[in-house]
Amino acid sequence: MPQTARQWLEHIRALELPERVRIMNVCGGHERSITMAGLRGALPDNLELIPGPGCPVCVCPEEDVYTAIQLALREQVTLVAFGDMLRVPVNVPKSEARSLDQARARGGDVRPIASPTEAVRIAEADPQRPVVFFAAGFETTTAPVAGMVAEGIPDNLSILLSGRLTWPAVAMLLDSEAPGFDALVAPGHVATVMGPEEWEFVTERHHIPAAVAGFSPDSLLAATYSVLRQLQEERPFLDNCYPELVRPGGNPAAKSCLEQTMRVGDATWRGIGTIPDSGFHLRPEYAAHDARVLFPGYADEGRKRAGEMPPGCDCARVVLGKLYPTDCRLYGKACTPRNPVGPCMVSDEGACRIWWSAGARPDPEAATGS
């Protein structure tokens, strides 16, 4: 019989653990479940659950958001994007549009969508008008985009692709001198698509305990217990605590669509820099639907240099698990969900937005340095 969340908590509390154990979760959905269920308060005080790089909106490079804004304002196109992307701010003078929402307020035809099929329907409804789909996301979001492209899309629909793979950011942290965590809870939805094998490098190369988890408290606590037992026994391995959906090899059909339509290459992560082999790019065969090819004049290399977080914003350090949201200098002060300064306060998968929604308010002793 499956264990309940209460039973997993009892198992965890019965363990003899080191004075401090830091467990990173790599999924915005995990962080939302952990925070909303109050798991941090229920676990022993020596356990730290650290939100990691699991928010695609937070790491979408500023130059891509800027390009989307300029296309919406300067070209006779309809610009569609997943809802959260409309509020992501970029670093521009106050006289200019700082987000797609502001571009829409200035007359741009910008529309939020919830799935790639909506982009197809919008393009089919007006075949004479170009439609640009600003597609930002991790593997679980990019796979449906790949499926859409593989099936064939209207001639007037192009893709401004800003897809990212999750595991390279974790690999970058582990390859650094100070990764900042002792165990890892890997993202269940990504593993459902790509397979759990992507995360074997954590245990095999770095000898750090890891477990794939779903999104319910019992699955998250089962994964927490697993990595703690691995630490205790000094026997790291990749555990699958989400067997209902995660299978060896992942989803063959989704992976086939990704392979057919996209290649993997170096990519920029906002505030972090370029991470090798971490981005999805449309293959040359699909150049007729690649917005970067169709609108080359908007590829401003200068934006890459300008594309850090806004002054005072610590989103990059929050994304990398170096700071908790409440330690950010702007959290709850200049930066709130109503007026976000950094992208982590925009998305429902951003740690800052999640913590704010759960009632976490600024730490009066938050760091004032960089």
TrEMBL record:
Superkingdom of the organism of origin: Bacteria
Gene Ontology biological-process annotations: protein maturation
InterPro entries registered for this protein in UniProt: Hyd_form_HypD (IPR002780), HypD_1 (IPR042243), HypD_2_sf (IPR042244)
Protein name (database record): Hydrogenase maturation factor
Keyword Metal-binding: yes
Record keyword Zinc present: no
Keywords: Iron, Metal-binding
One Gene Ontology MF term: carbon monoxide binding
Protein family: Belongs to the HypD family.
PANTHER family: HYDROGENASE MATURATION FACTOR HYPD (PTHR30149:SF0), HYDROGENASE PROTEIN ASSEMBLY PROTEIN HYPD (PTHR30149)
Any single Pfam family the record assigns to this protein: HypD
Biological classification of the source: Bacteria, Pseudomonadati, Pseudomonadota, Gammaproteobacteria, Chromatiales
